[in-house]
């Protein structure tokens, strides 16, 4: 019965240890990554919105530029210097907006590159952790096997001691019986 309880305990601890370790290995990195990626994603989304707003402004300015090209306030329907200056000013605004778009797009790409490098770094860290966990599991399994062998050896020696105790008890009981029988015979012989 004692051996059965020990075996049940071994099986139960193995099961729970493997399940707990598997859960840590599976969900631990994802929980860390989820916390970090939500802040990274919101920053990336803000940067994307900036670029989209600048593109919308550029598109609106092109509409203004088209209108200014059609505008002819001069004599005989010709363009005046003021009309041409308005078109030039709108083009300058478009160029400035384009420069802003390029700058913000570069920042967006840099952000994306940063995220990629961060993800690669995290993957490397997770691989290192997983390898460490695997080494720890292997070490613990070796230690467990050693302890199981030690328990088996102790159980065998315990059985040997129990057997020797029973044998010694039988010898003592047998010797006591022999002594008692001889003593009784001796008593009968002395009485007779």
Explain how this protein is built.
The protein is mainly α and 192 residues long. The protein has a single domain, classed as Four Helix Bundle (Hemerythrin (Met), subunit A), CATH 1.20.120. Helix content is 94%, strand content 0%. The chain has two helices and no strands. It has helices at residues 2-70, 81-191. This is Four helix bundle sensory module for signal transduction. Keywords: Membrane, Transmembrane, Transmembrane helix. It comes from Parapedobacter composti.
Query: What is the CATH topology?
Result: Four Helix Bundle (Hemerythrin (Met), subunit A)
- In the CATH classification, which architecture applies? Up-down Bundle
List SSEs in N-to-C order.
Answer: HH
For the record, the count of structural domains works out to 1
Task: Summarize model confidence as the mean pLDDT.
Answer: 82
> Nearest-angstrom radius of gyration?
45 Å
The largest β sheet comes out as: none
Please work out how many helical segments DSSP would assign.
2
Helix content: over 70%
- CATH first level: Mainly Alpha
Protein name: Four helix bundle sensory module for signal transduction
Transmembrane segments: 160-184
Organism: Parapedobacter composti
Keywords: Membrane, Transmembrane, Transmembrane helix
